[in-house]
Specification:
Elements (H helix, E strand, L loop, with lengths): L1 H5 L43 H9 L8 H20 L3 H9 L10 H10 L4 H11 L8 H12 L6 H13 L7 H14 L2 H13 L6 H7 L3 H11 L2
């Protein structure tokens, strides 16, 4: 798995796994799963795993936070992951999410989505993290998929086959129908690349699926007269 490859100790040492702990679940319907396969690696890293190993050894398996404390810890960690992602410090962002298990806190969909976004400069990594965190562990939402769509759309040229595959997975595996949240990302990619024909196809698909545009839809096409006019003609917006 992608995260295990990134977060694994050197071959000369025994695997450093975060020990299972009593996790405070913020969503009772989600199975409680400790981050047992989030490991740290020295390979290609400037960060020594020794400090992390010390923290793991000192971690209290009996940690149990009350609901309010768990929410605060999770919110702070999510903000930290966002900041690390913006700074390009991907490995530290992964470490931040993995560290939640030491505090007895289970990640939620927002935290996992934030980590995927933090890693989206490398879409192989981002997709791998998405696949590991979502499914059996957490349920993604449309925003989670929009992060993938935007990441594949940022490639040069945009990776439309992966975008199509992501939309298919969202629909067929998770039963999430795209709304303006997803279509706005597609229109944004089309506008950026001046792919006007595909942009019109996206608008046609919105009309066929009875998807209502929102204020961000108009903003995305505002600088492209062809798309702006076609949006108004097709969807009256």
């Amino acid at each position: 798995p992608i995260m295990s490859q990134l977060l694994r100790p050197a071959a000369t040492s025994s695997p450093l796994a975060f020990r299972p702990c009593k996790v405070h679940s913020l969503a009772p319907h989600i199975p409680v799963v400790a981050a047992t396969h989030l490991h740290f690696s020295q390979q290609g890293s400037r960060t020594s795993p020794r400090a992390v190993a010390a923290q793991a050894r000192e971690a209290d398996e009996d940690v149990q936070l009350d609901g309010e404390s768990a929410v605060k810890v999770l919110a702070a960690t999510t903000r930290r992951i966002k900041q690390l992602g913006e700074a390009g410090r991907t490995r530290e962002a992964i470490q931040a999410l993995a560290g939640l298990s030491e505090q007895g806190v289970q990640p939620d969909t927002l935290a996992a989505t934030t980590l995927v976004k933090a890693c989206s400069r490398d879409m192989v990594l981002a997709q791998g993290i998405f696949d590991e965190l979502f499914g059996d562990f957490l349920e993604p939402d449309e925003v989670s998929f929009a992060v993938l769509l935007r990441g594949y759309g940022a490639r040069n040229p945009p990776d439309w086959p992966r975008i199509d595959a992501t939309l298919t997975t969202m629909r067929t595996k998770y039963g999430i129908e795209p709304t303006a949240t997803s279509f706005n990302v597609l229109l944004e990619v089309c506008a950026r690349c001046n792919d006007l024909d595909r942009g019109q196809d996206v608008i046609d698909r919105m009309a066929a699926d009875d998807v209502e545009p929102d204020e961000f839809t108009a903003e995305v096409v505002a600088k492209k007269r062809v798309l702006r006019s076609y949006l108004k003609k097709t969807l009256g917006y």
